Amino acid sequence: MAISNYLLIFLLSILSFSFLSISTPPGETSSNSYFQIKQQQQNEGPFVGVNIGTDIQNMPTTSDLVSFLQLQKITHIRIYDANPDILKSLSDTKIRVIISVPNNQLLAIGSSNTTAASWIQRNIVAYYPQTLITGISVGDEVLTTVPSSAPLLLPAMQSLYNALVASNLHNEIKVSTPHAASIILDPFPPSQAFFNQTLVSVILPILQFLSKTESPLMMNLYPYYVFMQNKGVVPLDNALFKPVTPNKEMVDPNTLLHYTNVLDAMIDAAYFSMKNLNVTDVVVLVTETGWPSKGDSKEPYATKDNADTYNSNLIKHVFDHSGTPLHPEATSSVFIYELFNEDLRSPPVSEANWGLFYGNMTAVYLLHVSGIGTFLANDTTNQTYCIAMDGFDSKTLQAALDWACGPGRANCSEIQPGESCYRPNNVKNHASYAFDSYYQKEGKAPGSCDFKGVAMITTTDPSHGSCEFPGSKNVSNKTKEVVNSNHTSNAGEKLRGEDN
């Protein structure tokens, strides 16, 4: 995963991407009916998969890993090499896997058909079809991270494809290459997006190859970085897939298409960029996306709650089959970055904290995706809490606390001196307890977690030590154990560990 800087020009282009409520004219739908993208992934519809990085101090054994994937009902994974132990362990599991050609192997494969054929024999033919290999990702963000290797990219893809043809596997296994979002300039509004013109001489032949072979355009798309680089312009709710009011929708002034979330806008920017090169039959596959659960002081929005919200809403969004405003008929499949926190990753702190699970296979946080089927975390609690937001002074919080414990009739006995939730003895902690008490008493009714804008709803249990918050008392320990041990989710490329 590369930290993308492609939106440094965002502030200029955003001026024409209005956050307005505009009605879409009749007949001007986002489907552009002449452009019917066929769903890639053979008849199974869109899916959510996970990336599995291995920079983990105590990486599970391959057999334990595969058992864990089956337990979590994870059916699609992407790995960053062609690890023979993993491929062997996946045999007869029905778990679909995309394997990768590391960047350092591009020279050999791109310059020798014999080497490419040998790679296919060794890493595909030796395992298929017992191991369901569905794709090969050739390199990783080559055009932006190792541009000197760009001339080798298409030859390597072609050589691998030709070797698949020789083995009659080219219809089952697709060949593509993951790109960083930064290859697209002026991504907002999406209708004005275009590929970096200095890369077009490489990108266009690759797109033509993808079109000819019916393979997807692989994109690594991170709304987290869009938000971080454009705070004050991109609302956090839009980045997190939260429901937004019409006046918070992003409206493309050229198409009048309404965007409620950043990821859809990024996907449509890729479609418009391809259209500008007259390529209209290639689907976008999101090979990496996610949100870090922990960061340093420079990344205050890297939190468990935001990571939970993003990934939970992402999963729901995919399984809603709603597509994007431009192409509602084509819902992109996604791979979450990533399955495990990679605790051997270099700083910043967030680099080690993109995982859904720790290396010991316990959940970093519990996804809230109940009602969408058996995939990953089937949350049986759907539990939410009300806590004080950061950034407000003690006087403001004290006023809200006084109201909750007074007229609001919240049960504030546990934050009295000597009681279990008295410490830490500060206004924010006491206010959070009182807010949650009121919120739970009111049955989590709309508007019951506001307190003049100083409170927020969270899915992360704020209980600590011997202090059990009111919302947590409604969930039995048995239920918590079942959810933690039997349910979870999936993700992307590399990552780290963290404290609860």
Automatic annotation (TrEMBL):
Catalytic activity: Hydrolysis of (1->3)-beta-D-glucosidic linkages in (1->3)-beta-D-glucans
GO molecular function per UniProt: glucan endo-1,3-beta-D-glucosidase activity
Domain X8: 384-469
Matching Gene3D superfamilies: 1.20.58.1040, Glycosidases
Keywords from the named record: Disulfide bond, Glycoprotein, Glycosidase, GPI-anchor, Hydrolase, Lipoprotein, Membrane, Plant defense, Signal
Signal peptide limits: 1-23
GO cellular component: plasma membrane; side of membrane
Positions of the UniProt region annotated as Disordered: 462-500
Polar residues compositional bias, start-end: 473-491
Compartments where found: Cell membrane
Topology of this chain in the membrane: Lipid-anchor; GPI-anchor
PANTHER family associated with the record: GLUCAN ENDO-1,3-BETA-GLUCOSIDASE BG1-RELATED-RELATED (PTHR32227)
Name assigned to this protein: glucan endo-1,3-beta-D-glucosidase
Organism the protein comes from: Trifolium subterraneum
